[in-house]
Amino acid sequence: MQFEQLSYLIAVSKTHSISKAAEEVFVTPQNISNSLRKLENEFGVTLIRRSSRGVSLSPEGERFVQIAGEILAKVGELKQIGRPARGECHFKFYLPFNINPELVGRKVAAFCRQQPDFQITVVNKSREGILKELRNASKSGGMLLMPRREYRQADYEEMELDVVKSANDRLVACVSEKLPLSRLKSTSVPEILKLPLVNFEYLDGSVMVLDTLRRYGEPNIVLSTSNSSLFWQALGDGGGVGFAMHDKCVNNGIPEQYKLRLVPVRSREAEFDYTFILLKSKRSSLTPEETKLLIQMI
């Protein structure tokens, strides 16, 4: 039994919904369902009942919730004993090399303005390095990016990691209004390969994009840069076509002065669909504030 399983059960008892409980405790619905199933198997009881009207507790589940509340209250008292003094809260966030650090940096800065007591360290590591660090980290979180078809939540549960949140996005062609491609509803990889390519090295999934393009032919890279302003300027001047994450562009905005358009790319096997995931150790002792920080990263 783990304390987080008790907190999940309490959240379900309050919301009468697996999905709403997941939002309350910052994990995925599948994570809650799997955790409660393990708890039921461990104690040999049925804790929740599902119906068309939602989720309710069994008599055993109601007793569990009562005792769980008492246990977690005592755990909270114990944590207060060892809580760091004001200004000493330190959080480490691991970021893979295939995710643009500029976006995360802005979110970290915004969070620090809201929570001035926090000291946050952002560390770049390989995917394997992040998974290794997180397994036993109590005050850390991390983000990974992968093709959507490769994501399996169960893989991380086997590593004793919690998927705090996942989000899907897709890469689209980013092109100036000056080019005919901007007027199409969608395009294909062969059509893109006819144009010069402006490669943004800090694009989320940049290496994966180039690998995908090379399955169809060798791209004509006329500019490769880690400077976002230079990237947008080159595209705005009509110097070629680039790639961008659709939802991030829509949410964060493309600089208007460059007059760019986003064009979906048709491909086989959803090659340009990606999944971002936020991870923490199942043994994590993150506070609600730290978990909030983790959620804001995606």
Task: Outline the structure in words.
The chain is α/β, with parallel strands linked by helices and 298 residues long. It folds into three domains: 3-81, Winged helix-like DNA-binding domain superfamily/Winged helix DNA-binding domain (Arc Repressor Mutant, subunit A), CATH 1.10.10; 89-168 and 275-296, D-Maltodextrin-Binding Protein, domain 2; 169-273, Periplasmic binding protein-like II (D-Maltodextrin-Binding Protein, domain 2). It has twelve helices and 13 strands. It has helices at residues 3-15, 18-25, 29-43, 59-81, 101-114, 127-135, 153-157, 189-192, 206-213, 228-236, 246-252, 288-296; strands at 48-51, 54-57, 89-96, 118-125, 140-147, 161-176, 187-188, 196-200, 220-225, 242-245, 260-263, 265-266, 273-281. Strands 3, 4, 5, 6, 10, 11 and 13 form a seven-stranded mixed sheet that branches.
Determine the N-to-C terminus distance. Answer: 30 Å
Count of β-strands: 13
Number of helices: 12
Instruction: Output the radius of gyration.
Output: 23 Å
Q: What is the CATH homology-level superfamily of the largest domain? A: Periplasmic binding protein-like II
Shape descriptor reads: elongated
Q: Estimate what percentage of residues fall within beta strands.
A: 25-35%
Can you tell me the CATH topology of the largest domain? Answer: D-Maltodextrin-Binding Protein, domain 2
Give a short account of the largest sheet: 7 strands, mixed
Task: Report the top-level CATH class of the largest domain.
Answer: Alpha Beta
